[in-house]
């Protein structure tokens, strides 16, 4: 297994080539490539909506780091899913937190910043801490899927994350919701209980609602605010 550190130029070349070569590869093959290429400098990020990518990655790289961003605004079910994943799966869950607690943020910016300026709130509580949390890695995997929303329709299986200068892997980019459900059922993968309670995508509690029939999976995120992404994937 190659674990040598790569320069940013090497990483970009690897990402471009793999994005081309692995477009038709299975999720398992994509993760095998990531594990062989980056070893412990590869991690998975998880919102704890489900543990599908963490499960897939743990088979390619047992003990793989799974980075969870605790914004301080999560549903208790999400924290419970994180704890269950850490207890039963062959992964190393790492919880990262924003620089300020919610109370400290309220004191500086006023309460409920998420209602008044969600972009600012996400920048403080999601984007900045993830930037910090990914510092020690060359590559990171996410559970992004093309069928989740129009903004995710062109997600590459392997791409170059120019902002962070890292390889970004989306092993299940080509999966459908049916593929996810089949994998969960076949392997008994942990999922967030809120998925059984009308939520199709699980984020921070103040910015997440249940979806209605016919809505896309991410319609319940920042509903009515004209915002579709937190900034992590832009
Ligand atoms: S999703 Fe909402 S509560 Fe969470 S960081 Fe973004 S704006 Fe803040």
UniProtKB/TrEMBL annotation:
<dbReference type="Pfam" id="PF01507">
    <property type="entry name" value="PAPS_reduct"/>
</dbReference>
<feature type="binding site">
    <location>
        <position position="204"/>
    </location>
    <ligand>
        <name>[4Fe-4S] cluster</name>
    </ligand>
</feature>
<dbReference type="InterPro" id="IPR014729">
    <property type="entry name" value="Rossmann-like_a/b/a_fold"/>
</dbReference>
<dbReference type="InterPro" id="IPR002500">
    <property type="entry name" value="PAPS_reduct_dom"/>
</dbReference>
<comment type="similarity">
    <text>Belongs to the PAPS reductase family. CysH subfamily.</text>
</comment>
<feature type="binding site">
    <location>
        <position position="207"/>
    </location>
    <ligand>
        <name>[4Fe-4S] cluster</name>
    </ligand>
</feature>
<keyword id="KW-0963">Cytoplasm</keyword>
<comment type="function">
    <text>Catalyzes the formation of sulfite from adenosine 5'-phosphosulfate (APS) using thioredoxin as an electron donor.</text>
</comment>
<keyword id="KW-0560">Oxidoreductase</keyword>
<protein>
    <recommendedName>
        <fullName>Adenosine 5'-phosphosulfate reductase</fullName>
        <ecNumber>1.8.4.10</ecNumber>
    </recommendedName>
</protein>
<keyword id="KW-0408">Iron</keyword>
<comment type="pathway">
    <text>Sulfur metabolism; hydrogen sulfide biosynthesis; sulfite from sulfate.</text>
</comment>
<dbReference type="InterPro" id="IPR004511">
    <property type="entry name" value="PAPS/APS_Rdtase"/>
</dbReference>
<feature type="binding site">
    <location>
        <position position="121"/>
    </location>
    <ligand>
        <name>[4Fe-4S] cluster</name>
    </ligand>
</feature>
<feature type="active site" description="Nucleophile; cysteine thiosulfonate intermediate">
    <location>
        <position position="230"/>
    </location>
</feature>
<keyword id="KW-0411">Iron-sulfur</keyword>
<feature type="domain" description="Phosphoadenosine phosphosulphate reductase">
    <location>
        <begin position="47"/>
        <end position="209"/>
    </location>
</feature>
<keyword id="KW-0479">Metal-binding</keyword>
<dbReference type="GO" id="GO:0004604">
    <property type="term" value="F:phosphoadenylyl-sulfate reductase (thioredoxin) activity"/>
</dbReference>
<feature type="binding site">
    <location>
        <position position="122"/>
    </location>
    <ligand>
        <name>[4Fe-4S] cluster</name>
    </ligand>
</feature>
